[in-house]
Amino acid sequence: MKRRLLLGGALVAKGLATLAAPALAQVAPRGCRGPVYLTIDTGWSREAEAIAAILRRHAVTATLFIADEPTFRGDTSLSDSWAPFWRARVAEGHSFASHTWRHWYFTGDPGPGRTTFRSRRGQGQEVLDQAAMCAELDRPIAALRRFAPEARVLPLWRAPGGIVTRNAVALAAGCGLRHQGWTRNGFLGDELDSAAHPNAALLRRNLANIGPGEVLVMHWGVRSRREPFAGIMEPLVTGLLARGLCFEALPPQGVA
Q: Cα(203)–Cα(231) distance, rounded to whole angstroms?
C-alpha cells in the first residue's frame, strides 16, 4: 500500500489517497470534458504487452515512469531484453520520466542536503547527497536513451511508493526534476489484494470516481495480484472515453 509525505503543508497522508484533484493543466480539446493523465510505473511487467496493446488500440497516450525492477522473465525492466518493448512505446508517442534506478524507498533525512534511500528487499541502504541523487534519477533515463535516443523525457520524477522526504524533493529539484504523484481518485488499485478488491469492484469504483484533471497511476503488472488488473483495462479506458474524458501525457511542468 502506498503512502506519501506531502510537503508544504507538512501533512503525512497514509494509505492510498493523496489530496484534492489538481486544476486542469491544459485547455481540453473540443468535445472533451477534460483530460485525465494516465501514468504507468514499472513493476512485475507480466501484463505489459497486453496493456500496451489496449493503449495502442484506443490511441491512449500515457506517461511512463521507469525504474530497473525485477520482472516475471527473471530479468529487470531496463535490461537489454526489454529494449524492443520500450522502443515500441517511444514509437507510439508515450512520454517518460524517472522512477529512480533501484526502486528503493526514501525513509528519512539524516542531515542537510542528504536523504536516506533504503531497499525493501534487504539489499541495504545509502545516504544520497546531491550528486548521488542526480545519478540515481538519471540512470534509468540513460538506459532508455541507449534503446531509443529520440524518447520524449519530461523533467519529472516519481519516488517509489510515492513516498518522499523534504530533502529528497529538494535534491531532485537540484537535478532539475519536479516530483509527480497522483490524485485521490487516480489510484486505480492494481496493487491491492484481489480477494478483497476484485477487478469488478475496482472497475465500478474507478468509473464512478475519476473525473477531469485526475492523475492516474498503475503498473505494467503487479506480482502479488492474483487477478491481473489488465483484465479490466479495456473497459476502464472505453468507459472513461465514453464519458468524454481524454487521455493526455503529463505536461512538462507536471500537475500539482
A: 10
Q: Output DSSP code: residue 192.
A: S
Are 228 and 43 spatial neighbours (Cβ–Cβ below 8 Å)?
Answer: no
Contact 51, 62 (CB under 8 A): no
Q: Is the pTM of this model over 0.90?
A: no
252, 77 Cβ separation under 8 angstroms: no
The C-alpha atoms of residue 117 and residue 105 are separated, in whole angstroms, by: 5
Task: Give me the pLDDT at residue 29, please.
Answer: 52
Identify the H or E element spanning 157.
Answer: strand 152-157
Burial class (CB in 10 A: 0-12, 13-18, 19+), 121: exposed
Cα 77 to Cα 70: distance, rounded to the nearest angstrom = 6
Residue 42 and residue 81: Cα distance in Å, rounded? 15
Three-class DSSP category at 146: helix
Cβ proximity of 3 and 160 under 8 Å: no
- 109 three-state secondary structure: strand
Q: What is the pLDDT of residues 158-183, one digit of tens each?
A: 999 999 999 999 999 999 999 999 99
Contact 115, 213 (CB under 8 A): no
